[in-house]
């Protein structure tokens, strides 16, 4: 009886604890985004000033769900009122739920924290992948194109942002140059025409008190934003290098293009609500292109109307502003690509024809070429003891941790003065952490064994470092085991020019298909994102990152889809400067249909595992900006297409009307219909072998000579029958747009994804469209 009573009391205690915790959780506030659709249509019977919703409207809505005794919480973190309507604020879960049911509210979601995802690269792209001399830029190009970099801010003193020879700021520019404690209005010029910053403390750490205005500045302290800005539109800078490496003339893709910097990110990450605010501001300020090298983790993707970048990009597209985004750095696994809305230009990363090598020389005279960047002062003449991490484990440390050079896993007395071999078979410990462990233990250098990341050179600064593969490791291990006193040295990095093959899909580059809908092919294109030289913040907080006797470099070498994204931004700005009236979708189509799937050896592009790359890895191929100036035909994807997409995806008529300011009639929801959106590539999520022919429709617009005849050439995968109707397109002065159909019949095709292409040829132009079809 007593036992039963005790059990009952324990049950009551646990139940009350659960209820208490639930109540506390419901009452805890955190930042939420409240998205209310189009800035005018979503607010009924409200007087708007210059298309803007007054902040008081949103405060009134907030006050309707926050208790009066907590009136101090009735304040907005961000207010969206230019291109779309909404706000972000501190809410409890119950309050967020109450708001989501409010008339005029499209979606309410917790404010997500997003991740931050050149000398040779532009010459490589502009010279048709290094195969022919660099062509000249057309004379009739405009220098009035404006790009917005939403990132970590900017370092205005960089020579990449000088305004020598650049004309007056375009009169349509409505932006500002915000001052901060270390940033003056005079830091802006005719090149860097705008700079904004946002208070991010509320959203990045909601437990801290608000620090609005404290130490705020558009100045970049990380370097990411400065690097991306210079890659997209930096001016020509002679004799640029990273401590002598990658020496040459640095420039962006469109050196005459204006830059506006929007600082939304800090060391802690990037608040989604702040990115949304920056996009709203950028559209209002009058930019032509928005570049965002940021994204949600591939593990945390949400639907399009709960994704701040997708929301902002939709309204940018409505107003003729292109949005270019990085695909993410979670490769090589499939279904990792992010920023996949069809109205976003999604970019994967590749290498260029330049590499960096750091040799390890053994005591027996054998030399192995490893990858990596180091500025050590070691030479062949002096050798150092060579040890394997697991042989010098600290007391009680697991062997698996010591071989991976975990923090605390090594016996420091046995590390000092030696070159240590570490493996990289544990993804939890980065190369940087391993290097810091050995540096702290006063090792002479580090040899890292990693087969997977050798295509991306790690920058170890002045610390001797090289990265090798399994083949080299087996030979080095044999030497260690067969020699009484094994020794080695690591030589400083040398540059390898004319490296082949290039491009190769970077190992880290996120892969498709999109987890949200496989009926849109993502990523869209590929661009250089490995070891890219760009402008940098000339300071260093990490000991040993600056070579002895050197000043901090004005340029740095970085890798990531973050670096690939501004290459496409710069290319798009370049095309816009020549074709000022082209819409974002026309520019996007031009870059996609003229992309190349061949490398500098005139063979199919491969991935880092040396297999032929498929469209889920590289999109339609590597961009070719010069060819994109004259694409012949373009696929125009307009707002009606994107509204159809929202319909087919399954959003209600009411939501779509709020988002798009249009009355829509959606057919019965069918994800399959998404494949018919007028996109410059084709993707079909499901095609059954016993299914009848699947028909896909596309419409092309002639932007070349008035009278032109194009003939279709199909490259179909084995066992799949692909036909085009009609297979000849005849354009004239009166016929500028033609619709055609492509039929797919699985018949004897292999199961899983099948890839192929359809190319329209007129003798001058090569309009290449890629398709991906999953056969069941």
Automatic annotation (TrEMBL):
Q: Where in the cell is it found?
A: Secreted, Extracellular space, Apoplast
The segments labelled Disordered in the record are 205-225
Compositional bias segments (type: Basic and acidic residues): 209-222
**What does UniProt list as catalytic?**
151, 224, 562
Q: Which PANTHER family match?
A: PROPROTEIN CONVERTASE SUBTILISIN/KEXIN
Domain named Subtilisin-like protease fibronectin type-III: residues: 676-773
Question: What family does the Swiss-Prot or TrEMBL record give for this protein?
Answer: Belongs to the peptidase S8 family.
- Domain Peptidase S8/S53 as annotated: residue spans: 143-602
Record-level Gene Ontology MF annotations = serine-type endopeptidase activity
Instruction: Supply the alphabetized keyword list.
Output: Apoplast, Glycoprotein, Hydrolase, Protease, Secreted, Serine protease, Signal
Signal sequence coordinates:
1-25
- Please state what the protein is called: Uncharacterized protein
> Is Glycoprotein there in the keyword field?
yes
Please give the GO cellular component terms listed in this UniProt entry: apoplast
Q: Which organism is it from?
A: Pisum sativum
Question: What is the protein's major site of localization?
Answer: secreted
Q: Name one GO biological process term.
A: proteolysis
Q: Where is the Inhibitor I9 domain?
A: 32-117
Write out the function statement from the record.
Required for arbuscular mycorrhiza (AM) development during AM symbiosis with AM fungi (e.g. Glomeromycota intraradices).
């Amino acid at each position: 009886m007593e036992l039963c009573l005790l059990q009952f009391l324990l049950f009551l205690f646990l139940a009350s604890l659960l209820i208490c915790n639930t109540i506390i959780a419901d009452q805890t506030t955190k930042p939420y985004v409240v998205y209310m659709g189009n800035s005018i249509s979503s607010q009924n019977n409200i007087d708007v000033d210059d298309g803007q919703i007054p902040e008081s409207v949103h405060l009134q809505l907030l006050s309707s769900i926050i208790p009066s005794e907590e009136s101090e919480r009735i304040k907005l973190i961000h207010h969206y009122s230019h291109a779309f309507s909404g706000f972000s604020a501190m809410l409890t879960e119950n309050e967020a739920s109450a708001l989501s049911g409010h008339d005029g509210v499209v979606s309410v979601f917790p404010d997500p924290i997003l991740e931050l995802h050149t000398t040779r690269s532009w010459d490589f792209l502009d010279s048709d992948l290094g195969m022919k001399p660099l062509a000249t830029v057309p004379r009739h190009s405009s220098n009035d194109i404006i790009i917005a970099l939403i990132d970590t801010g900017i370092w205005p003193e960089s020579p990449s942002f000088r305004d020598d020879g650049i004309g007056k700021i375009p009169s349509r520019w409505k932006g500002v140059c915000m001052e901060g404690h270390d940033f003056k209005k005079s830091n802006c010029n005719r090149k860097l025409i705008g700079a904004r910053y946002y208070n991010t403390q509320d959203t990045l750490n909601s437990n801290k008190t608000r620090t609005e205005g404290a130490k705020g500045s558009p100045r970049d302290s990380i370097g990411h934003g400065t690097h991306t800005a210079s890659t997209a539109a930096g001016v020509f800078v002679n004799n640029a290098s990273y401590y002598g490496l990658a020496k040459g003339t640095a420039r962006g893709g469109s050196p005459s293009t204006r830059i506006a910097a929007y600082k939304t990110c800090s060391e802690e990450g990037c608040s989604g609500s702040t990115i949304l605010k920056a996009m709203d501001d950028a559209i209002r300020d009058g930019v032509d292109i928005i570049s965002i090298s940021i994204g949600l983790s591939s593990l945390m993707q949400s639907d399009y109307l709960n994704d701040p970048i997708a929301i902002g990009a939709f309204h940018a597209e409505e107003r003729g502003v292109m949005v270019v985004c990085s695909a993410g750095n979670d490769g090589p696994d499939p279904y990792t690509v992010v920023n996949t809305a069809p109205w976003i230009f999604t970019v994967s990363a590749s290498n260029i024809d330049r590499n960096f090598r750091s040799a390890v020389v053994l005591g027996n005279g054998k030399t192995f070429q490893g990858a990596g960047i180091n500025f050590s002062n070691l030479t062949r003449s002096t050798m150092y003891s060579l040890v394997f991490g697991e042989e010098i484990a600290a007391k009680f440390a697991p062997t698996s941790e010591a071989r991976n050079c975990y923090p605390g896993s090594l016996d420091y007395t046995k590390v000092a003065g030696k070159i240590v071999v570490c493996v990289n078979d544990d993804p939890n410990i980065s190369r940087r952490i391993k290097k810091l462990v050995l540096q702290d233990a006063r090792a002479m250098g580090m040899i890292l064994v990693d087969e997977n990341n050798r295509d991306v050179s790690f920058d170890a600064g002045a610390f001797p470092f090289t990265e090798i593969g399994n083949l080299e490791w087996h030979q080095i291990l044999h030497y260690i085991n067969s020699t009484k006193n094994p020794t080695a040295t690591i030589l400083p990095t040398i540059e390898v020019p004319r490296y082949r093959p290039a491009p190769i899909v970077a190992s880290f580059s996120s892969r498709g298909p999109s987890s949200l809908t496989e009926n849109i092919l993502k990523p869209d294109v590929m661009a250089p994102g490995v070891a890219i030289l760009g402008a940098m913040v000339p300071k260093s907080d990490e000991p040993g990152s600056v070579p002895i006797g050197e000043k901090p470099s004005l340029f740095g070498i970085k890798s990531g889809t973050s670096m690939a994204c501004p290459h496409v931004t710069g290319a798009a700005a370049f095309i816009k400067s020549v074709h000022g009236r082209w819409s974002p979708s026309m520019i996007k189509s031009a870059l996609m249909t003229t992309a190349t799937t061949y490398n500098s050896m005139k063979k199919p592009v491969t991935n880092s595992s040396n297999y032929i790359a498929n469209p889920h890895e590289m999109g339609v191929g590597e961009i070719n900006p010069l060819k994109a100036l004259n694409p012949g035909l373009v696929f125009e994807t307009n707002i009606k297409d994107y509204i159809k997409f929202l319909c087919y995806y399954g959003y209600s008529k009411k939501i779509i009307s709020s988002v798009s300011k249009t009355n829509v009639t959606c057919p019965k929801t069918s994800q399959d219909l998404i494949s018919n959106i007028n996109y410059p590539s084709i993707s079909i999520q499901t095609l059954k072998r016993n299914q009848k022919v699947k028909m896909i429709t596309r419409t092309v617009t002639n932007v070349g000579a008035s009278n032109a005849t194009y003939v279709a050439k199909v490259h179909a995968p084995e066992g799949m029958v692909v036909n085009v109707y009609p297979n000849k397109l005849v354009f004239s002065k009166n016929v500028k747009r033609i619709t055609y159909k492509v039929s797919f019949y699985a018949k004897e095709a292999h199961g899983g994804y099948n890839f192929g292409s359809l190319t329209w040829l007129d003798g001058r132009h090569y309009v290449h469209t890629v398709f991906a079809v999953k056969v069941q």
